[in-house]
Amino acid sequence: MGRATAQLFADEGARVVVADLGSDRVDAVVDEIRTVHGADSALGVVTDVADPAQLERLVATTIEWAERLDIVVNNAGVSVINSPFQDAEEFETSWARTVDVNLTAHARLVRLALPHLLESDAARVVNIASTEALVSTAGLGAYAATKAGVIGLTQSLAVELGRHGVTVNAICPGPIATAMTAGIDEESKEKYARRRVPLRRYGIPEEVAQMTLNLCLPASSFVNGTHIPVDGGMSIRHT
Questions:
Q1: Long-range contacts of residues 183-187, Cβ cutoff 8 Å, at least 24 apart
Q2: Catalytic residue at 202?
Q3: What is the pTM of this model?
Q4: Active-site position among 9, 95, 143, 202
Q5: Looking at the domain covering 69-236, what would its CATH class be?
């Protein structure tokens, strides 16, 4: 989803800073964008969002390169699949890392970016939550808790920052074909989609990216504090 979002924003004329853990992934996305839009269209910064110092470097590097910061998309996330809540060792390991990446990093990055967002006349923050904040899957306690926390953080920041003209919204992707779901076999995905998703398919990253972009357009300037499912109707289906 991050890759699709970066590419879409670049297509719309934004100068994009791409951050990820691995230099190979960062370089691949930056190269793709620069090939289409030129050398000055994208910058890559290898970043572990769980490290406060690296987040500070990310923001500082962005300002040094672009001289402004108008939009923050908090897309980084991890999920420890099938981590039993009653397993003490698994709980401690997965909980700490998941909270650091999925929730604390969101708050830290917005705080670090805020002085620059306040200088923008169209400041936007989009946090990527999940439908796991709305419906639940066994074994994903840490993930679900952090994604619910992202919605709470989004609402609180929307109220706090709204008077400064900064909108803060969240997107809740449902079943999307990403690296996070790549380990699920295709038969299981098809069966799940037929049973749970009214549109009877998994979504694609570009469909989430389009909603992210929409929340950053002038047409959405009065949208603030929302959380929008992009899930083919999954979260509203009862049977």
A1: 183/81
A2: no
A3: 0.93
A4: 143
A5: alpha beta
